[in-house]
């Protein structure tokens, strides 16, 4: 059967889609790039903002039209929106055949098979549902040990063609989240924080490296909360199993006497030392609290760990941070950033910010602007607050910042971030950086012509001369700064894909650095 799979949302979802694809391919399903050619259509959805859900819903609507016109399609909605909306979704959208939450993806092949068999008249019911529901906030390690999801991560296809960029891969170290920021659906859709056994993670990294990955990004919603206490969560055969996280209080305590634990810093060091073929070991997303000196020391001492932190501030106002339940103050966030740059002077910092959170005054917003001016954020993703059903904020606080004000604040902050990015980027001019190339970019001559010289009139190329193009190889530094290098042809740009070069930075803008290749880097 031919399957079309489209992914919305975060890197967790991208990894989930890769795993789903691998497990269905191993059962003989064929993946197609065009939904018109598919018999099974799967949307792996995101629920983090309303807009993300609307995008997926409009696709679901279009499949509904095709089904009403008589096409025999199987439509599956996977991921966070399936989990959040649950059975309401089935009621409102009769064209949906399968709902599968992010914690149940190991059951997807069975769900598809059931729908096929019921269509063939072998079974009665025709819709399949696998949602974690109230199971999603499991408290016992035993329940986590029974976690079928681990088998999905473990059955990963290491074939480089499984990934769009074979040189780069994600590895999950923690699932779920225990933080409960008041605006956020993730603790409800992905469930409790569960840590994977370190041996599983290291082995996965090793097999990815054997299959050609030179960059691995470790994933967790609060990735620095990783901690695995050995000997407490075992499977029937005695092997270690995923383990429910210890909760915030416990993570701030030392490991009790007599217990052996693998901390996040120790996990980083193990992967760095045991899989040296990984030239870039990265991790997202860091929670600004609980980021110990042991992690910074490990980052300083291990050259292949990228000195890059995505550690969202969310707001620059203490009052807003408290209502968000972020658990830190602006001063604490700044002290954390100062510590990072003391240990790692060449680190880069990025984050996320929400504007228009309930009750955000002009003064609160100004405090956020000031934070973005003061700290060296290379970039920030800026979001307008979106009230999400099921969260604490939607019940507790009125969404009282008008949309127009949210939009203005969003634009104003983007402009300030642009200035900060330009300043951070300018600091790299003249330096030599390693760049891992991952994009080929074409620009027509009109874009690159010097000011005052126009090759186009009214948008159309003059005469019938073919549009001349210039080519760039584009990649990222270990600190995730984007670097563009001019090359002579498309082939030359393609030849750099997946390779690392030393690049001398010649100039900078708010969006990227430009430079000249000095040499192909050797390890
Ligand atoms: N675990 C990560 C982020 C997960 S969601 C962390 O804690 O940093 C990614 C980002 O989406 C968040 O950092 C936040 O900035 C944004 N976000 C989450 N819920 C939102 C909401 N209801 N409205 C607007 N933005 C939201
Ligand atoms: Fe959401 Fe907060 Fe958890 Fe991040 S830390 S996933 S923002 S609840
Ligand atoms: Fe979206 Fe779920 Fe990721 S809500 S951001 S897909 S964890």
Task: Provide the fold topology.
Elements: E1 2-7, H1 11-26, E2 30-31, E3 40-45, H2 50-68, E4 74-79, H3 80-85, H4 87-92, E5 98-100, H5 108-119, E6 128-130, H6 141-145, H7 149-154, E7 168-172, E8 174-175, H8 186-189, E9 194-195, H9 198-210, E10 215-219, E11 227-229, E12 243-244, H10 247-251, E13 261-263, H11 264-274, E14 280-284, H12 293-301, E15 308-310, H13 318-324, H14 330-343, E16 348-355, H15 362-374, E17 377-384, H16 392-396, H17 403-426, E18 432-444, H18 445-448, E19 456-457, E20 460-461, E21 469-476, E22 482-487, H19 490-495, E23 500-508, E24 513-520
Parallel strand pairs: 1-2, 1-3, 3-4, 4-5, 5-6, 7-10, 10-14, 15-16, 16-17, 22-24
Antiparallel strand pairs: 8-9, 9-12, 11-13, 18-21, 18-23, 19-20, 21-22, 23-24
Helix pairs in contact: 9-11, 11-12, 15-17
The chain binds S-adenosyl-L-homocysteine (SAH), iron/sulfur cluster and FE3-S4 cluster (F3S).
Features of the shown structure:
4 domains, Transcription Regulator spoIIAA, binds FE3-S4 cluster, about 35% helix, binds S-adenosyl-L-homocysteine, about 525 residues, globular, five-stranded mixed barrel, binds iron/sulfur cluster, 24 strands, six-stranded parallel sheet, single chain, Rossmann fold
Walkthrough of the structure:
It is a single chain. About 35% of the residues lie in helices and about 25% in strands. The chain is α/β, with parallel strands linked by helices and about 525 residues long. The chain folds into four domains: about 1-135, Rossmann fold; about 140-305, Transcription Regulator spoIIAA; about 310-425, Transcription Regulator spoIIAA (2-Layer Sandwich), CATH 3.30.750.200; about 430-520, OB fold (Dihydrolipoamide Acetyltransferase, E2P) (Beta Barrel). Strands 2-1-3-4-5-6 form a six-stranded parallel beta sheet, sandwiched between helices. Strands 18-21-22-24-23 form a five-stranded mixed barrel. Helix 15 links the parallel strand 16 (about 350-355) and strand 17 (about 375-385). Helix 15 (about 360-375) packs parallel to helix 17 (about 405-425). The structure holds S-adenosyl-L-homocysteine, iron/sulfur cluster (SF4) and FE3-S4 cluster.
């Amino acid at each position: 059967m031919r399957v079309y799979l489209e992914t919305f949302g975060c890197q967790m979802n991208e990894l989930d889609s890769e795993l789903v694809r691998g497990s269905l391919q191993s059962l003989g399903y064929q993946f197609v790039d065009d939904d018109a050619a598919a018999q099974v259509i799967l949307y792996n959805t995101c629920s983090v903002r309303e807009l993300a859900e609307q995008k997926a819903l409009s696709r679901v609507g279009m499949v509904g039209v095709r089904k009403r016109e008589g096409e025999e399609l199987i439509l599956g909605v996977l991921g966070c929106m399936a989990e959040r909306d649950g059975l309401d979704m089935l009621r409102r959208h009769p064209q949906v055949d399968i709902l599968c939450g992010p914690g149940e993806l190991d059951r997807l092949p069975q769900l598809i098979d059931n729908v096929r068999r019921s269509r063939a008249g072998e079974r009665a019911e025709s819709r399949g549902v696998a949602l974690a529901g109230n199971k999603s906030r499991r408290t016992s390690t035993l329940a986590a040990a029974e976690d079928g999801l681990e088998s999905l991560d473990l059955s990963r296809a290491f074939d480089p063609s499984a990934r769009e960029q074979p040189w780069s891969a994600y590895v999950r170290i923690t699932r779920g989240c225990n933080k409960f920021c008041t605006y956020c659906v993730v603790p409800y859709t992905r469930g409790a924080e569960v840590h994977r056994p370190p041996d599983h993670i290291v082995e996965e990294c090793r097999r990815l490296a054997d299959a050609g990955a030179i960059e691995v990004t470790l994933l967790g919603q609060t990735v620095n909360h990783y901690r695995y206490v050995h000997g407490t969560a075992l499977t029937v055969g005695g092997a270690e199993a995923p383990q429910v996280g210890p909760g915030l209080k416990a993570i701030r305590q030392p490991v009790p006497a007599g217990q052996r634990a693998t901390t996040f810093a120790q996990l980083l060091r193990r992967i760095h030392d045991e899989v040296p073929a990984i030239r870039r070991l990265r991790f997202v997303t860091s929670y600004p609290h609980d980021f110990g000196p042991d992690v910074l020391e490990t980052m300083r001492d291990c050259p292949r760990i990228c000195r890059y932190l995505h550690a969202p501030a969310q707001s620059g106002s203490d009052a807003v941070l408290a209502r968000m339940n972020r658990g830190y103050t602006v001063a604490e966030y700044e002290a954390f950033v100062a510590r990072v740059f003391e240990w790692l002077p060449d680190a880069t910092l990025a984050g996320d910010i929400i504007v228009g959170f309930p009750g955000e005054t002009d003064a609160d917003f100004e405090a956020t602007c000031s934070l973005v001016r003061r700290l060296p954020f290379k970039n920030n993703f800026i979001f307008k607050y979106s009230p999400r059903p099921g969260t604490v904020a939607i019940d507790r606080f009125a969404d009282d910042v008008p949309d127009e004000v949210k939009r203005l604040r969003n634009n104003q902050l983007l402009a300030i971030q642009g200035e900060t990015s330009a300043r951070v980027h300018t600091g790299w001019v003249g330096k030599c950086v390693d760049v891992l190339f991952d994009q080929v970019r074409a620009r027509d001559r009109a874009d690159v012509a010097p000011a005052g010289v126009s090759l186009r009139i009214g948008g159309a190329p003059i005469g019938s001369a073919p549009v001349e193009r210039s080519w760039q190889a584009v990649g990222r530094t270990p600190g995730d700064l984007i670097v563009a290098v001019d090359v002579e042809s498309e082939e030359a740009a393609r030849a750099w894909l997946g390779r690392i070069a030393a690049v001398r930075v010649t100039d900078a803008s708010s969006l990227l650095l430009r430079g000249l290749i000095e040499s192909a880097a050797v390890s």
